[in-house]
Amino acid sequence: MELEVLCQKASDCKGVIGKLSTEEKNQVLYTAAELLIAQEEAILSANTLDIENAIAKGMETGMIDRLRLTSVRIADMADGLRQVATLNDPVGEDISYTERPNGLKIYKRRVPLGVVGMIYESRPNVTCDAFGLCFKTGNCVVLKGGSDAIHSNKAIVAVLKEALEKHHLPKEACSLIEDTKRETTLAFMKMKQYVDVLIPRGGSGLIQNVVNNATIPVIET
């Protein structure tokens, strides 16, 4: 039920996010970038817990490095949000136009998808990237990261929610599924009444698992 409520709340606010102007969206992204830097210490403390757990589990060095955050990597995350803010806003763009013999004019126009579900693995910076790209395109996002990065992801999402609230926007526009059980991930893949599209990011095994089990439309990366 907690998962369903989380997804429903994301769906409830997609009308608000989808109608934001380019400037309004950019201001949130710039604020989020500033807050990431300002709250670096809290993010790094959370990341330390994930690193300690990974070492205790015997995770290989390369995977631990993917999981690790540093001041430089947090600065890169903030820069990534600023770069997204400089991108052209695709929402409302007309990409084709035809006129029928009877005078009916038909436009194909870009609109937000609504609620995007992101399922991904260890890298906590993906949490920030996913929010930035989804928000710039007028979408709410429900994030399902790997269990290895749960503390880092919770800290990052807390910052992103704060940025939304500073601009008087619903914090549910960026939500993190904190339950790391496999059953919860499978249930998330079937929340088609609230989630409009799923995007898996990771290895072929993860992507195939989503494709095989989801009842929500999937965009394979």
Explain this structure to me?
The chain has helices at 2-12, 14-18, 22-38, 40-56, 61-67, 71-86, 125-136, 150-166, 182-188, 204-213; strands at residues 94-99, 105-109, 115-120, 140-144, 174-176, 197-201. The protein is globular. The strands form two sheets. A four-stranded parallel beta sheet has the order 5-4-3-6, with helices on both faces. A two-stranded antiparallel sheet has the order 1-2. α4 (40-56) runs antiparallel to α8 and α6 packs parallel to α7 (125-136). 54% of the residues lie in helices and 14% in strands. The chain is α/β, with parallel strands linked by helices and 221 residues long. The mean pLDDT is 96.
Which SSEs are present, and which pair or pack?
Layout: H1 2-12, H2 14-18, H3 22-38, H4 40-56, H5 61-67, H6 71-86, E1 94-99, E2 105-109, E3 115-120, H7 125-136, E4 140-144, H8 150-166, E5 174-176, H9 182-188, E6 197-201, H10 204-213
Parallel strand pairs: 3-4, 3-6, 4-5
Antiparallel strand pairs: 1-2
Helix pairs in contact: 3-6, 3-8, 4-8, 6-7, 7-8
What is the number of E strands?
A: 6
Task: Evaluate the radius of gyration.
Answer: 18 Å
Please give the oligomerization state of what you see.
Answer: single chain
**Spans of at least 5 consecutive residues with low confidence:** none
Tell me what portion of residues adopts beta-strand conformation. 5-15%
Give the rounded overall mean pLDDT. 96
How would you characterize the largest beta sheet? 4 strands, parallel
Count of helices? 10
Instruction: Give, in order, the helices and strands.
Output: HHHHHHEEEHEHEHEH
Strand order of the largest sheet: 5-4-3-6
Q: Which class do the helix and strand fractions yield?
A: alpha/beta
Tell me, briefly, the overall form.
globular
Helix content: 40-55%
- Distance between the first and last residues' Cα: 29 Å
